[in-house]
Amino acid sequence: MPAPAALITGGTSGIGRATAELLHSRGHRVMVTGSGGHAGAELPGDIVTVRADARSLPDIDRAVDEARSRFGTLDLLFLNAGVSRPGPVESIDEAAFDDLFDINVKGNFFTLQKALPLLREGSCVVFTVGAGEGIGAAVTAAKGALLPLVRSLALELAPRRIRVNAVSPGLIDTPAYGKLGVSREMIESWGADVPLGRAGAAADVAEAVAFLASDAAGYITGENLAVSGGLGVHARP
């Protein structure tokens, strides 16, 4: 029987990359997509890398065709591609708003739609959702659209024994913060306010994704697993 196969969008850096490396180390066949100019640099050589823009349906088609050619079927689809445009409502222009929904919502929806024929019975889909509240209304709206989608898909795909879940990272130290101009000192300062006393690492989220994709999570679907070091627990009843 061939090793399990995983397709990870947004898999060339941060959480996606950490998940690709973890699954690869555990014997998975892995393909990642990324939109950067150096997508896939320094990943293990037998991880397949496809340059693809999550906003582009032709790029999604090409990535899924490559997964079909390489693997035939998929055991995990990790829909991790996403962007954040933090800021108050007055600061968000139409282009930024469109990016948030085209990548976080439209891109994930159509990647799943096009990859669905490859998903075996017993396979798993995981969305990266993450925190939206507190970093801007537009981000909250885009991220908030995903959780109802996860629950709806979990019901729709249950007869095919395809499980659909989400991970919601809290404060995770990834290159995305650097792109937003956030310093290492600021991340460490924020981390001190997390109940567990630190910012998370991409590997923390990768472990959660690997769990959801495993047989150990075979009776879990339609759920959102927060990987946040306890951030937000104080706000819950």
Order of helices and strands: EHEEHEHEHHEEHHEHE
User: CATH topology, anyone?
Assistant: Rossmann fold
Main β-sheet, spatial strand arrangement: 3-2-1-4-5-6-9
Give me the CATH architecture, please: 3-Layer(aba) Sandwich
Strand content range: 15-25%
The CATH superfamily is known as: NAD(P)-binding Rossmann-like Domain
Shape: globular
Q: What's the CATH C level? A: Alpha Beta
Overall tally of structural domains = 1
* Unreliable stretches covering 5 or more consecutive residues: none
- How widely separated are the two ends? 47 Å
Quantity of strands, as a count: 9
Rg on CA atoms, Å: 17 Å
Mean pLDDT value: 90
In short:
With 237 residues, the protein is of the alpha/beta class.
Outline the structure in words.
This protein is α/β, with parallel strands linked by helices. It has one domain (5-174, 202-224): NAD(P)-binding Rossmann-like Domain (Rossmann fold), CATH 3.40.50.720. Helices cover 39% and strands 19% of the residues. The protein is built from eight helices and nine strands. The strands form two sheets. Strands 3-2-1-4-5-6-9 form a seven-stranded parallel sheet, with helices on both faces. It is globular and about 50 Å long. The model has no long low-confidence stretch (mean pLDDT 90).
